[in-house]
Design brief:
heterodimer; A: mainly alpha; ABC transporter involved in vitamin B12 uptake, BtuC; two-stranded antiparallel ribbon; 15 helices; globular; disordered N terminus; B: alpha/beta; Rossmann fold; six-stranded mixed sheet; 22 strands
Amino acid sequence: MSSPTTATRPSLISPAVTRFDWRSNVIYIAFVVVFILFAIFLSSDGFLSANNMLNIVRQTATISIMAVAMTFVIATAEIDLSVGSIAGLASVVTAMATTQWGLVPGIIAGLLSGAAIGAINGGLVALLKVPSFLVTLGMLGLAAGLAQWITSSAPQPIGNTLYVQIFGGGDFGPIPGLLVWTVVAVAIGWIAMNRTSFGRRVLATGGNPTAAAYTGISTARIKFTVLLLSGIAAAIAGMLYAGRLESGRFQWGQGDELTVIAAVILGGTSLFGGRGAIIGTLVGSLFMGLINNGLILAGLDVAQQSVVRGAIIIAAVALSRKK
Amino acid sequence: MRGIVKSFGSVEVLKSVDMDIVAGEVHALAGENGAGKSTLMKVLQGVHPITSGTIEVAGQPVVIRTTADAERAGIGMVFQEFSLIPSMTVAQNIFLNREVRGRSGLVDDRAAERAARAIFDGLGVTIDPRARVETLGTAYWQLVEIAKALAKNASVLVMDEPTASLAKHEVENLFELIDKLKSRGIAIVYISHRMDEIRRVADRITVLRDGRVVLAAGVAQLTAAEIIEAIIGRRLASDLVYRDRQLAADAPILLEATNIGSDRVLKSVSLTIRAGEIVGLAGLMGSGRTEFARVVAGMDRPTQGTLSIDGKPVRFSTPIAAQRAGIALIPEDRRDQGLVLDHSVSDNLALPVLDRVKSGAFLSISKLRELTNQLVTRFDVKVADPFAPVSRLSGGNQQKVVVAKWINTRPRLLVMDEPTSGVDIGTKTEILDIVRAFASEGNAVLFISSELPELLAVADRIIVFREGRSDRELNRDDVASEEQLQLIIQGEAA
């Protein structure tokens, strides 16, 4: 039926499609700009060498893996502040268990420590409706304290060479193992977010919880699941710290939660939920590593690095707010 | 539906309601707020399970206890508050939680987009299934909701006030679409307050009052007046009686609005309010009453026209400027806009007048106490502990706190937007008395209400808004009855 009114109905013009979307793309621009600046000013310091590039990937692998899982958490409009502490706890648990019982029990113990804390976080948020900010803030202290307590603040060396090979110390020919871990995590994250019903439920839960519930989605279960996954991802990151540095220490991962959240937000995922950009998260994470690397090469001391890094993050986030 | 009863605790909200919905018809459902319309629809939707009664779909009895049950029974809702995920695309929304999967088991967006396009083609509308919902206008949101229901093979579509946020030509498009759905054998339950729409689009009508069906008939046999009479019913003699307050005809004009327009809804509003006068604003939802209140209170700026106070033109750039000029707004949503719910009654009362409860640079607890006691007594707020959170009070007492808070700022013009919604009848009369007393001190009141009995009880003059314009001005003596005023608001009376 094509009545004349149908023909004269105003056609659909959505300006947002044609307009450049700053929010989701600013990270790519920032990455390229900073990369070019470093390439110009730091080339004599070996910034562009293949080895340095791989170094950036190695140093950001743990952040990237936690950030991929954090993208799901933030896409549901929740937050997980405990990831850094979980990484530290998992690093000492896996190191102690590997020394005591061997490789496989060590890996299982490490994963279980993250899963357990993730499940507690998720349970409190999903069932008791405690805000995730508070639950995971408490867990940040709890997990860090636990890691320090069970080790009496002592480093836990890992003698198992196969463990070190698998978890970040080894290379596959010219390719660092940590690069493989990163690529696998990003690939799984991207497919889960963009090509599975789970990803849709995550985005729906964050985008409009009421509508999601009316559509038959159990938003509580989704929130539980993303926090559980975030705990497991943080445990894997902690196990990679343990492998790369050949020991478990309660300090590993300390403060990582802020870097991880910054990477996710820079990548274009909205703190208000409903949006989740996995590739953006990866670039956000690499961007953080890029800045660290460049500032060290430039010879800045730790305090100066901190100041410049903070300023760059604020500038990038402010740009991404621009409409 | 047969003998539907729904109780909440000991309160029976639906008292044996029968309703038949025939395939391919538009069935209007009307009634006042609280008559049971939305409860009945929530029963159908699976939000509230019924207490007793039966529901049959196509001759088969069905049990609807969850939204999933309702979906299986073929009942689709087009929500009043839109239920889409703004950050997702049109196709993703339509197939949310029932994603189309490819052979790999992964979600296939292309296939979902094709299926969505097929649904839209069938409806004769053009929407890009790949567009994010947040980039679309509200009229399109509604179409997406309809498509979402159709994708689930709904045979009954419930539309709750579907035209509330639509422009005029969009309403016409919606009606065309409804005709198309009818011809496919889909039944539509059309909930509306608007007589012109009901008469334009509905085949039959069911009117609810106090949880009972009071009218069920073909629309063609009925006049607007008959429908309105069924909705309103015979009112018991109530406390809501107009008292002539003997206004001086030569009282000075306090506020004058000339040809006010804004980029939101308002086209041309002109009115005057004299000192000591209560002017009521009547009109349908979306007629521009709230928007006009916002302009007067300095929240929105007009794009045309002038506002003058005491004959001098004013331009408010902020609500603070309006407050300085003596205008206070009691907003529509008391919980969201009127109170800091977690704060105490005392703190809420003091908020706009903090400078008056200081001694030196600091807040004085004794002055705060004095102010609170004085206001609580004067406005008879029933409160056990004025330092307990205001959220613990009943709706009526919360509203009294809002009224007290603003009258205490000593405004000359009080703008009240639906000040008695969710307020019990006793408190309602008290609030009306407060308003009358306030006006009698030589102040002016702009009183917005959709509840006509109270509007007729309190207003000395009534301005009827229609489509962003001040359409009619009625002196209290011109209005003989609630029915007559309702007909004027509906645009059905000469």
